[in-house]
Amino acid sequence: MDELAHLRKRITTSFKLCGFLIRSENSSFLAEQLLPFEPTEREKWLTIITENLQGQKLATPHVERDALEKAINELNRVGLDEGETIFSLIDAFTVPRYRYNTRIKKFELDSRPRCLLPQPRMKSDYMQQRYAMLLQKTLRHDLFAPAVIQDGVAADAQTKKFKLQYAENLLATSSLKEAVVLGLLTQLKEGKFYVEDPTGCVQLDLSGARFHAGFFCEGCFVLAEGSYANGVLKVDGLGFPPAEPATSSRAFFGTGNSWGGEAAKLLKYSPRLQELERTNTETTIVFLSDVRLDLPIVMEKLRQLFVGYDSCPPQAIVLMGPFTAGTRNHHELRQHLDALGALAAGCEHLKKQTDLILVPSVEDPTAPNILPRAPLPECLAAGLLKAWPRTQLATNPCRLQYCTQQIVVCRLDLMAKFCRNTLHFPPDTTHIEQHFARTLVCQGHLVPIHPIAMPVHWDYDPALWLYPLPDLIVMGDSCQSFSSTQHDCTVLNTGSFVKSKFAFKVYIPASRTIEDSEIPGDLDMQ
């Protein structure tokens, strides 16, 4: 305590020598920031801070808290350009919306205002935009792109090429031996499936179809290959639109920030952030799902987690709901969040250096069962925010940016929805996680199923896009945990913290590896 008082006095003296006046509460704030450093380091940082304040050209000699915070934040970002951040949380409702321009073959930013209750035309418009996104990458794929002629010979003559047909092309003819159509898999009549695109719809005969890997649910987009006759496409093979590496996709978005956040340009190629990402080998991000705050055993394990990480704080701890068991009682949830803040008592290093991110599930109160879901209200988390100031209330889904890496986080029991709604269950159940990952990666969307199974806000559907592919997709699904990497995109399922004997996942960005961790102890629900 004497050391803190001495440091406050030293701060006041240094500021006076530089022509500044600082109130006691602000000197205490700055002293707490400098206290972890050695005495010689404190002097160096104090000099740099006063120089920064002089550069801010303050209107009065009194230094207020916001000026101090601005100086400290700028020092933490030394070497970074304007808008570059090491770590940030991106709200789903702020994710930019892009539309594909078929004339220039590029994606263009759509800056028109959006709302939760849009015009009826948006019901079809958001699906058309999703179709346009899948169509343009399918047409670029080797199987559909025109052959390149070199010296009078096709460069890829050994590869069979397909010509993509539209529904109107098939409807305008009586028969066609070979046809491939990209469209929405839908059931317009009971028991009869169709493939639909903006030009029309064609009935499918799936009796002899060979299904490729993945979950084929009503509401996803498919490539149907077969022969067309008498108004019916007899399907020989049913697959997904081909996946595309993110490096190829980004070329069609220009230099704009298609990911979201404050930066004007995409941070993916920032050399400074790439260097920080490579050198920060100890940085980790912790993910937990099904964090039931109403269970005493869970609170006990969270306390162990916080105490254990206090000596080596991660960049962020992401807690996903449901935070209580099927209750819509707002007051009860507030009490549990207050108790969560109390668990971190004494973990000062953790609270100062780690972001605590809360991602609600569709079962948590105050928002309907529609994605994207709004964050928990601040009024319910007031006690937690006071106890742990670096707490952030996230949307579901949300996006994270760590240096150059892009991470999507979503809390949804999607595996069960896929299994219930798929037309064809994959025969290879030992690698079910690969079918799950392939469905997301190829569809370029978090919930490629019928809106009845999982409703979405039409105007904010781009927040659910996985195109260009992110580096990591974190699903908080209560089924068994798994991870699968396809096209340099890792799909991770955390599993249930409650059901898996308090297991959780730790992501190490520097090596792009995932570690399985567990807090010892038996689950006692009684």
From TrEMBL:
A Pfam family annotated for this UniProt entry: DNA_pol_E_B
Keywords: DNA replication, DNA-binding, Nucleus
Similarity-based family: Belongs to the DNA polymerase epsilon subunit B family.
Naturally occurring in which organism (per UniProt): Drosophila arizonae (Fruit fly)
Domain named DNA polymerase epsilon subunit B N-terminal: residues: 5-75
Domain named DNA polymerase alpha/delta/epsilon subunit B: residues: 285-483
Entry protein name: DNA polymerase epsilon subunit
Function: Participates in DNA repair and in chromosomal DNA replication.
PANTHER family attached to this UniProt entry: DNA POLYMERASE EPSILON SUBUNIT 2 (PTHR12708:SF0), DNA POLYMERASE EPSILON SUBUNIT B (PTHR12708)
Annotated InterPro entries: DNA_pol_a/d/e_bsu, DNA_pol_e_bsu_N, POLE2
Cellular compartments annotated: Nucleus
UniProt superkingdom: Eukaryota
